[in-house]
Amino acid sequence: MASISKVSILDYFNIVFEGENGKIESNCKACGTRIQAKRSVTSNFVTHLKRKHQAMYDEFVKKKDMKREAYSSSSSSLHPYSSSSLHSLANGGGHRCNHSITAGGVGVGGGGGREGAGEGVTKFHRHDPRQVLISEAIAKMLVQDLQPASLVDLRGFRELLQLLEPRYTPEPPRYLHTQLLPAYAYQAQLATRQALASALSLSLSVSLWRGFLGTAAGVNTGYLGVTCHFLSSDWQMRSALLACLPLVGGLSANRVLAEFEEVCVAHGVSGRAFRVVADPFPAETHPSCRLPGFCIHGNPGDDADEEEEESGDEGGEREGAVEQEDWWEGGLGSGRIDCFCCSLGQCVRDGLLSSSPLLSSTLAKASSFYNYVTSAVPHDKLVGLLGGGLGGAGSSRDGERDWAVQLKVLRGLLDSAEFLEDVSDRADLVLSGQEVALLRELTDTLEPFTEAWDMVHTHRQGDRHVSISLALPCVLGLRKHLSECVSPQLPCLLLGLSQAVERRLAPILEDPLYVTATTLDPQFKLTWSSDPDWHRQVLLDEVTKHTQTQGPSMELTPQAQSPDAALSPASSPLPSSTSLSRPCKLFSFIKQRPTAQAKSVEQELAGYLREEPTEEEPLHYWRRKTIDFPQLSQVAKRAFTVPAGTSTVETIFTSARHWLQPGRGRALPKNLETLIYLKTNYRLLWT
């Protein structure tokens, strides 16, 4: 038999470094891109070829197929048990074979799959590109859905894989959660550190959750998430989760600060953050705010149970809160600010709590009517009335527990009340005129809060970065709305909202950071100000302070701006003969260009404010205006890194906490922090 040469994906790469535990660094032979991975996990190399060099990938797949066919044919001809002899033996040999045998002579157990599913099928080699890509797709599924790796051992899942691709061999769960997923996390860490090394400016978000895994056996648990929002060298806003760390045994300010500093040092951002967005310590659990009594497609008892879980240990945690808060404030310094989105949600929660006795019974009746209608009436008839995705089948449990989504459902219900009454046969659930008027008053009062929530909430914006320049105009709009609003049936709601806004959000109006960010937003400038002269002076003071403390210019060279610049031929310097940096007799007839005189901060601000407001995206505007307003631009690229909304990892925790709790019928992934880390950084790896 002719020898069959081995086909390896590494044939298309030059290995430049090989470290411990099989870690290697290789350069692509075609483009020179450096890729880090483990020798046992080659999916990164296969993915690079498939995305960047399709012809080379097709050649690799063809070689693998040729090798497989050659191996299969040669093995079949030489193996003493050919398919025909096996068939004869099974029928007349006196005993029955319980295992299917592939054409290559490899036995495949038939206990967990379909009978005879593996007959005549040669399984993929461990490093076959199709085997690797399917394993990567399974890993993506585990990450996106936060599923335990043990899912691949379920009989139904294996039968599905056998039906879709009989040649695929499922990877063991231990390999997935001890090698494959950590390898992806390692790749994400490398990519994040490279991007942060050339970042122009950055801010951080600190997220804390208490009791996330329950309080079984009296052990308090929690998680710490650190997210970096940074401006890349090409003036694009990026966000990356730096770490998701489990905190078992309770939270203390000292411990959280130590973990936070360690994460910052490891990623090279210690001392570089412009602002740190973190709520006061001890962190509030921020229970999901929802309309009291309005339960869509659920059991009202679940809400009561979660309220107990969220507030059960409140008395004990208040002990020593003042001391912990002092440590927290001292550790993060004056750069700490509250999350605007969380503060906005707390305002709504405070207002709803103040009017809960008046609203609960009516909202409970409205939700019963909604649940009955959406279960009895065909979904296609409700889409145009209740909005897309709100007709029952399309709504998710996360959305149903969000006060803003609930309010939109309620508004659609009220707008279509007459039609829904006609198609339903439950007169006891129909809302009376007084009840409709009460709910109308509720929706009208909270409508501007819903608009502000949708505007700054990260999940509503498709994970797009929303800067704090929107916070100040939102607060002004809410104050104006509450001052003009008339609520004869819900005076407690109006009073509670007004007091909450003044307590939690009004300080923003005098905060120099928010004044600066809003004024440097080209769509606002000073059009919002009732005292332009004072706010102009606040901005001047802020710009002067930051330009003085900045010192030498932080602008990076083109080589430093891009990690791959050294590999690009376009980045090589021009020949010295083309440079006019020194006097040249040959070009003495050319008039010298006049040097631009530096403008003062006052002159830059005056020129900026003379321009008409524009809808141009702020960072695009300031990148274009860097030469015209260099000092303002330096402050703008810092201020716009501060987020107004919650980080993506908080959205993941909010959506996952109700079904990852022990006792809710779900197996808890052992490497939950790795799954959350990869899910948050999903776009960094797989887009």
TrEMBL record:
This is HAT C-terminal dimerisation domain-containing protein. Residues 302-314 have a biased composition (Acidic residues). The gene is ASMTL. Residues 300-323, 546-580 are annotated as: Disordered. Residues 562-580 have a biased composition (Low complexity). It is found in: Nucleus. GO terms for cellular component: nucleus. InterPro entries: HATC_C_dom (IPR008906), ZnF_BED_domain_contain (IPR052035). It comes from Oncorhynchus tshawytscha (Chinook salmon). It comes from the Eukaryota. GO terms for molecular function: protein dimerization activity; zinc ion binding. Pfam families: Dimer_Tnp_hAT.
